[in-house]
Amino acid sequence: MIELDILLPTLNSENTILKTLESINRAQNKYKNLKVVVLVSDGGSLDNTKNIVNNFNSNLDIRIVSECDSSPEEGLSKAFIASKGEYVMPIGADDFISQDYFQDLVDVGFLSNQILLPANFCILRKNIDGEMVLRQKRSPRKGLMLRYTIPLPGFGWIANTSKLKHFIGPRNQMLFTNKYKYATDNELFFDLRNSGFSYKTMKNNHSSYYFLEGGRSRANGTHLFKEACEIACKSSKWFTLDIKFIYFLWLFWIKIRK
Q: Could you tell me the residue range of the domain that residue 14 belongs to?
């Protein structure tokens, strides 16, 4: 039996959390030899989020492992410390996954020092009728640029738990540090790369991670890209000049769009 712990940070997520849990449940039910445990870390929700989680009617094992977290990053770190499964995966409370998302985990597998990424990251937006429609589909970046950038949104990856717990030892047992306010995903992925992890994209071309455009990153785009540029320049061993040039162009593009 393959055991996968899903790390789910929540905060006033009553409008989206049900769809997230339903997608996880459908994906788990597709594979008989897969056991999924959802570890919820709540930031102090004042709405119906925790009631929805506690009353979710399925064979999905859901546990609230922390409450009143100060940020999604802190919640993810706490949930990860509580994880005991062989593999771990973070997911956002307003995100969802395709039914065949775990096909590579079950049928193909990957090395302990690899980070398994979906074939597609699907960005959604709400139309004028309030319906979710596909805005853009992206594949994980490959080749040269993979050293400088990470796949969006920073969730949806699957990793070996024991290998990852060894990685967080020097980080005060935290997946995410407090060095940066916005580009926390960039910092984590660069540190993973520099500590010996590599990326592997799922062979199943239909595996998709869906998330809604906007959020904290979009609202603070200029600050995020400045931090991302600093992280990239500090963390990469080669081609520092082209990193700076690429991020300069991104910052310029953000400014002229405002």
A: 2-216
Edge-to-edge order in the sheet of strand 132-138: 96-97, 208-212, 120-126, 132-138
Whole-prediction pTM: 0.87
Nearest to 101 by CA among 119, 125, 76, 124: 119
The pairing of strands 87-90 and 2-10 is: parallel
From CA 99, how far away is CA 157, in angstroms rounded? 15
238 found inside a domain:
no
248 falls within a domain: no
CATH code, domain with 193: 3.90.550.10
115 within some domain? yes
Nearest to 90 by CA among 69, 116, 111, 112: 116
Look at residues 126, 143, 140, 130 and name the one whose alpha carbon lies nearest to residue 214.
126
DSSP for 158-188 reads BEEHHHHHHHTGGGTT-SS-SS-SS-HHHHH
**Structurally, how many domains does the chain consist of?**
1
- Asked if the structure places residue 224 within a domain, the reply is no
Q: What is the pLDDT of residues 145-190, one digit of tens each?
A: 444 454 455 789 999 999 999 999 888 888 888 788 877 887 888 8
pLDDT digits (tens, 9 = 90+) for 70-104: 777 888 888 999 999 999 999 999 999 999 999 99
